[in-house]
Amino acid sequence: MNRILVAILLLLPLRLASEVPHGVKSMSVEDKARAVVGLQRKLFPPTNNGIAGRTAPLPQYGLPTLALADGTAGVRLSRTAPERSTAFPDNNALASSWDSSLAWEAGDAVGYEAFGYGVGVMLAPGINIIRNPLCGRDFEYFSEDPLLAGRLAAAYVRGIQGHSVAACPKHFTCNNQETNRGRVDARVDERAFREIYLKCFEICVRESHPWALMSSYNQVNGTPAQEQYDILTGLLRDEWGFDGIVMTDWSIVEHNTAAQIHAGNELLMPGLDRQIDDIVEAVRSGVLPEEDLDKAVERLFSLASRAGTPREPGHPDLARGAAVSRKAATEGAVLLQNNGMLPLTEGGSAAFFGVRSYDLIATGAGSGYVKPAYISQIYSAFKDAGVQPDAELEELYLKYVAFTEADIRINEKVKIHLGIGLPFIPEMPLSRTLIDKAAERDDYAVVALGRSAGEGVDRSLKDDYYLSETEKDLVSGVCEAFHAKGKKVVVVLNICGVIETSSWKDLPDAILNVWFPGQEGGVAVLDLLTGRANPSGRLPMTFANDYFDYPSARDFPYDHPTEGRNYDYTDYTEGIYVGYRHFCTRDVPVCWPFGYGLSYTSFSYSGVKVKKGKTALTVSVTVKNDGGRSGKEAVGVYVSAPSGGLSKPAMELKAFAKTGELAPGASEVVTMEIPLSSLSSFSGGKWVTAKGEYTLHIGADASNPVAQAKVSIKSVK
Ligand code: BGC
């Protein structure tokens, strides 16, 4: 009896969803067209201030409206709304955790708040590949590696969707630069397209079944991504089994409306009246088959049955998000350098230099921006913990920040201006006398350096990727003065992506990178520097020695073109050799390799076992904490494949995992699966797995794997 009841309950949602298509047949073409075009911004009710868009309600057919909200670091409410939401660490930080369960927790916390604020679709996560360090949205993306990006994004999506809120991975696909993002043509070869740029989406879609996906603004190989049937339907639905809706990114350029619907977009956002007319006209004239429109409407009904649970904007408990945000900021930080300075002894006095010690950048700008109730500052987190911040520096910096903020606002000097830009406060020059005095009185120095970024604009080399002259003087001046007194200096990076570090990394005693750490950044820095938490983050992208070492360096708008190469089109000449695939294969020295990160303890690896099954390799390894503090260890498995007649990277990440918290002396057997199909390369229009001997390199750091195993593969089914 019970079983029958369970079966009925399980089938109920299917039955409700399957009732919907009947209704679609009875709808007029005009109503169907209305359903697939978002409600324009001007129609939003005032209570939804901050919502990025809405689907059109058609109550006569039982189709509710859904609210769509950004973004990639939490629920983006309006800057002027009285409500606040939790600012979570950016995706660079989440990716640095190498921990799917943490990505799930973050998605779960975001889904909870989204539901509480009446949101039906979260426009997140951003999962484009980090191809070049200057992309203005790199902070919204996970990694230069498609497995790390796809798998963490999948966990995040599952977390969000557990709350009846649709996730919407974006921007599909090859939206790897912001310059001319509405029109630029990403010219990418088939192999790189499949193995790198599509792969992260493929993994995310197959593993988490997102209920929505956003097609990108740009063109791919000569056609707007939003108009490509082969990609949006052929690949996404037919090959990968996607069963959600595709919505367009926010129409900053005119598109062929009929082609967008035919290609497989079910929702045109943010929605324009003329698109409704276009669709009606296209159906009437036979340009757009009515079945295409019907399918789109059916899928919108099915989105509504998944994410349309009635909800009223309420007051989610923000304490829940705060705890997850703090955990993610801590586990997503990467300790890059430590010449014995860290962890710090508690107490004493510290000199906090750098604007970001007093005015942390919690999140990026643009649609990735989140305004939290508060931001934990570095200097005040230490103060609350009983460390005395240098009073002169505190006074000077707080006044400088207040003055510069007012100056930026009153004189409208916003660096990134999209109506949602963030003021960026540059460093101020300090006199050597001031620094010397601080070195005399304080026990150690913290220098926090920051970078801001946001959509619509790519970053610059000058004063952005490279440190500004003032920043260089600050770092070298503080290091000289403190070292002269036998005292130490730690640099904290509060950055939106990669910056140049190799020319100055040996000056300070320690470097901690916390990315955009969200609202709990200050306490996370305190926890990590004092050893209350043990750093366990690993870089999800390579920090090269110099910008021009990146294989995409010249094929990127680094010199701000306004037409032609890298503006109208960008050639992805590096092919599959993105990030570490390039550096490891061609032995190019780097500053910090992919997968690099330090800990306050040390781990040893032993007992590597590889079991070859019919469809997968199962790799297990014992990881032991050999040091004196408890900590977690990220483990990667990189594979060197036989060539099989193709050019192959020296190694590629094929599996990863993270241990739990291991006490000193404790060990854990970490087990990871590598599907045999994931060993293949895309060649001649199909996936091919080379036969021969594969070498498995185990350890997170791509340049320094700690164990090896070999396996021979004869055939793959
Ligand atoms: C961005 C999307 C965002 C949308 C809605 C677009 O400009 O590219 O990422 O979700 O705006 O705010």
Overview of the structural elements:
The protein has 717 residues and is an alpha/beta fold. It has three domains: 2-13 and 29-307, TIM Barrel (Alpha-Beta Barrel), CATH 3.20.20.300; 333-533, Rossmann fold (3-Layer(aba) Sandwich); 603-713, Sandwich (Immunoglobulin-like), CATH 2.60.40.10. It contains 19 helices and 27 strands. It has a six-stranded mixed β-sheet, with helices on both faces. Strands 1-2-3-4 form a four-stranded mixed β-sheet. Strands 8-7-5-17 form a four-stranded mixed β-sheet, with no helix packed on it. The chain is globular. The model is unreliable at 1-19 (pLDDT under 50). The site of beta-D-glucopyranose has 8 residues, from loops.
